[in-house]
Input
Amino acid sequence: MTEENIFIFVPNIIGYARILLALVAFYFMPTNYIVATTCYVVSALLDAFDGHAARYFNQSTKFGGMLDQLTDRCGTLGLITVLAHLYPKYMFWFILSMCIDISCHWIYLHTTVLQGKSSHKFIDMSENPIMSIYYTNKTVLFFMCAGNEAFYASLYLLYFTEGPIVVGLSLFRIILYLSAPICIVKTLISLLHCIVASKNLAIIDNNERKNISKKAN
Output
């Protein structure tokens, strides 16, 4: 059987397009909010299509999953970095947000890989009814991710323009107010991931130390 070229699978090509759009968005963010916002939003929306393409063409791969995760994280981090410069008064909070985002995702994913190499019992957040909905309901997950992105995107747009006026308030400000609680909740969920991953990592450490002790004795 001929070896498949994973790198040219349809969902991965969509992933490359997302990266290019994000780079264009980053380049224009300080100077042209229309081009930047258009490219950023399209890149974010394509995130929904690569998953469908992977299932439709039966091209789900670990590389594609990692590419998707990294594009999501780098896209958000790029936007928050720009916000930290546009709103220097709140730079600490933007830096804190970036640190929470990248560290919590990294330790959770890395610990998940390590868990696959051990049969020890781990803490499973999906057993919690609230977290179970978060993990299994794609609508809820999309709503949380979209709300988080909407918060930062609306902050970016408000630096340049108030946008259309709706019932006495600018559309972008309405989006900001509505998405702020979602952003906070998603941040808390990320911190919960970090706590649980840390506990699972400690379980792995204890398990390995016990095995080393048994071999030594």
Observations:
- The mean pLDDT is 88.
- The longest strand covers residues 165-166.
